[in-house]
Design goal:
The chain has two domains: 225 residues, Aldehyde Dehydrogenase, Chain A, domain 1, CATH 3.40.605.10; 186 residues, Aldehyde Dehydrogenase, Chain A, domain 2 (3-Layer(aba) Sandwich), CATH 3.40.309.10. It is 42% helix and 17% strand. The strands form four sheets. Strands 10-13-14-9-8-15-16 form a seven-stranded mixed sheet, sandwiched between helices. The longest helix is centred in the first third of the chain and has 26 residues. It is globular, with a radius of gyration of 25 Å. Bound molecules: nicotinamide-adenine-dinucleotide.
Length: 453
C-alpha cells in the first residue's frame, strides 16, 4: 500500500494531472472502456444481485456517463482562476482564487450501486486533478472484480488503481496518508474512516445513510404521490441510501393512500424473474430485514424466499417509533406507514432523530411545503417526488450530521476534490502608512473607517 501511495504521490508531483487536457483524456478513456464493456458490466451486476441491464443503465452507467460528460464540458470553466472583489483596505490590489487538486485521493465505495458509487466520486477526483486509489465494496464481489480488471488493465497504477478487499484491506489503506478520503457507506463505518483520517488531518467527504422520511399531507395528489413513492422505495429492492425509509401520512388520507400504494405495487409486478426487482445483497441482510417484518402489522406483502434472497414489496401499517423497523435504516423493500394529525408533531418527531440524508414532502400546500423545508435539516430531497434529485448534477448531493459531511456531483464534486487557494496581489508603487508605527489615534480612526468598506 505504502509503495502504491508513494508512486501516486510521485506521479502527482510530476504535474501531469495539472494539465486539464490530461484529465479530460483520462475521463474520456474511462468512458470508452465502460462503453466497450457494457455487456460484462451488466453480467457482473446481475451476478451480484440480479440487477437488470435496464436498471444498470438507468441507475448506474447513465449517471456515470452524465458525470463524465458534464466534467469534460465544464472543466475549463470550473478550473479557471476566479477574480473576486478586493476590499478598500487592500487597494490598490487584486484578489483571486486558484483551484488546485488535493493530491492522492482514496475513494471507498458501497455495494448498493456499485458502479455509480465507486466511479462518480472517481470522476470528480480525476476532473479536479487528483490521483485515485479506489476500493469498491467486497459485498458486490463480481462488480468489484470487473471494475478492478478494467481499471487496472487500462490505467497506470501510479495514476488510478483499484484495490479490492474488505475490512482488512480498507484498514490498511486507511493507515496510509492520503490527501483526500471520499467514503460512501454506513454511519458506523463512516466514524471509523473519520477517525483514521483525523490522524493525518486528511479532509474527508462522508456519504452516509440514515432514515429518510416521506411526508404526505391531506392536500397532496394521492395517485401521483403513491406512484412516485412506490418506485422510489422499491427500486433496487429498497437498497438505496436516499430511498424513502418510512412514510408519514395524514390520518384523513391514509386508507386511500394505502389502496393507491397497493395498486401501484401490483401494477409493477415486482419479481426477480421480471427483471424489475433486484435481490437482497446477502443472507445476513435477508435475516436483518425479515426481523423487521411484524406479521400483525403487514398490510401487503411480507413474503420472502431465503434461497433466492427475495422479499416481496412489503407495506406495514400502524407502525410507531418503538417498532423494530424504526430502530435503524431499513435498506430493503419494507415501507412502514405512520399516520399523523398535526404536521407540527411530524416535524418535531423527525427533528428528535439524527438528521436524515433525504426528506420528501408530498403536498400542494405552499405553507406546509415551506414549513417542512425550512424547519427540518436534511441532506437533500424533493417536493412531490423522491430519489430523483440525485439525477440533477446541478444539485449538491450529500448528507448533514449523521447522514454525512460534504457533497459531490457536477461542479460540487470538482470542489470536493479541490483546494481553493486564495491570493491577494499588491502592486509595489504605493504603500499607505496606516498600519505602521507610530500608532496614532487618527490612524486608528481611519482604520476603523476603512475596514468597514
Ligand atoms: P459499509 O459501511 O458496511 O461499507 C462501505 C465500505 O466500507 C465498503 O467498501 C467496506 O469494505 C468498507 N468497510 C466496511 N467495514 C469496514 C471497517 N470496519 N473498516 C474499514 N472499512 C470498512 O456500508 P454498505 O453496507 O456497503 O452500504 C450501506 C450503507 O451505505 C447504508 O447505510 C447506506 O445508506 C449507505 N449509503 C450511502 C450513500 C450516500 O451516497 N450517502 C450511498 C450508498 C449507500
Amino acid at each position: 500500500m505504502e509503495k502504491l501511495i508513494n508512486s501516486q504521490r510521485e506521479f502527482f508531483f510530476s504535474k501531469a494531472t495539472l494539465d486539464l487536457n490530461f484529465r479530460i483524456e483520462q475521463l474520456r478513456k474511462l468512458e470508452g472502456i465502460l462503453k466497450k464493456n457494457e455487456t460484462e458490466l451488466d453480467r457482473a451486476i446481475y451476478a451480484d444481485f440480479g440487477k437488470s441491464s435496464f436498471e444498470n443503465y438507468e441507475t448506474e452507467l447513465g449517471l456515470i456517463y452524465h458525470d463524465i460528460d458534464s466534467a469534460c464540458r465544464n472543466l475549463k470553466r470550473w478550473a479557471k482562476v476566479k477574480k473576486v472583489y478586493t476590499n478598500v483596505a487592500n487597494l490598490p490590489g487584486r484578489s483571486y482564487i486558484i483551484p488546485e487538486p488535493l493530491g492522492v485521493s482514496l475513494v471507498i465505495g458501497a455495494w448498493n450501486y456499485p458502479y455509480q458509487l465507486s466511479l462518480c466520486p472517481t470522476i470528480a477526483a480525476i476532473a479536479a486533478g487528483n490521483t485515485v486509489v479506489l476500493k469498491p465494496s467486497e459485498l458486490s464481489a463480481e462488480t468489484s472484480r470487473i471494475i478492478s480488471k478494467l481499471i487496472n488493465e487500462n490505467f497506470e497504477s501510479n495514476f488510478f488503481k483499484v484495490v479490492e478487499g474488505g475490512i482488512e484491506e480498507t484498514t490498511n489503506l486507511l493507515a496510509q496518508k492520503f490527501d483526500k478520503i471520499f467514503f460512501t457507506g454506513s454511519t458506523t463505518v463512516g466514524k471509523i474512516v473519520y477517525r483514521a483520517a483525523a490522524k493525518n488531518l486528511t479532509p474527508v467527504t462522508l456519504e452516509l445513510g440514515g432514515k429518510s422520511p416521506a411526508i404526505l399531507d391531506e392536500k397532496c395528489n394521492l395517485k401521483t404521490s403513491a406512484k412516485r413513492l412506490v418506485w422510489a422505495k422499491f427500486i433496487n429492492s429498497g437498497q438505496t441510501c436516499i430511498a424513502p425509509d418510512y412514510v408519514f401520512v395524514h390520518k384523513s388520507i391514509k386508507e386511500q393512500f394505502l389502496k393507491q400504494v397497493s395498486i401501484e405495487i401490483k401494477k409493477s409486478k415486482y419479481a426477480v424473474e421480471n427483471s424489475n426487482y433486484v435481490q437482497i445483497i446477502n443472507k445476513r441482510n435477508m435475516e436483518r430485514l425479515i426481523n423487521f417484518i411484524d406479521k400483525d402489522k403487514v398490510y401487503l406483502g411480507g413474503d420472502f424466499d431465503m434461497e433466492n434472497k427475495y422479499i416481496s414489496p412489503t407495506v406495514m401499517v400502524d407502525v410507531d417509533f418503538d417498532d423494530a423497523v424504526m430502530q435503524e435504516e431499513i435498506f430493503g423493500p419494507i415501507m412502514p406507514v405512520l399516520e399523523y394529525e398535526n404536521i407540527e408533531d411530524v416535524i418535531l418527531k423527525i427533528k428528535e432523530k439524527p438528521k436524515p440524508l433525504a426528506c420528501y414532502v408530498f403536498t400542494n400546500s405552499k405553507k406546509n411545503k415551506w414549513k417542512i423545508l425550512n424547519e427540518i435539516s436534511f441532506g437533500g430531497g424533493a417536493v412531490n417526488d423522491a430519489v430523483m434529485h440525485i439525477s440533477n448534477s446541478r444539485l449538491p448531493f450529500g448528507g448533514v450530521g449523521d447522514s454525512g459531511t460534504g457533497s459531490y456531483h457536477g461542479e460540487f464534486g470538482f470542489k470536493t476534490f479541490s483546494h481553493f487557494k486564495s491570493v491577494l496581489e499588491k502592486p509595489t508603487w504605493i504603500e499607505p502608512n496606516l498600519k505602521y508605527y507610530p500608532l496614532t489615534d487618527l490612524k486608528l480612526k481611519l482604520i476603523k473607517f476603512v475596514l468597514k468598506l
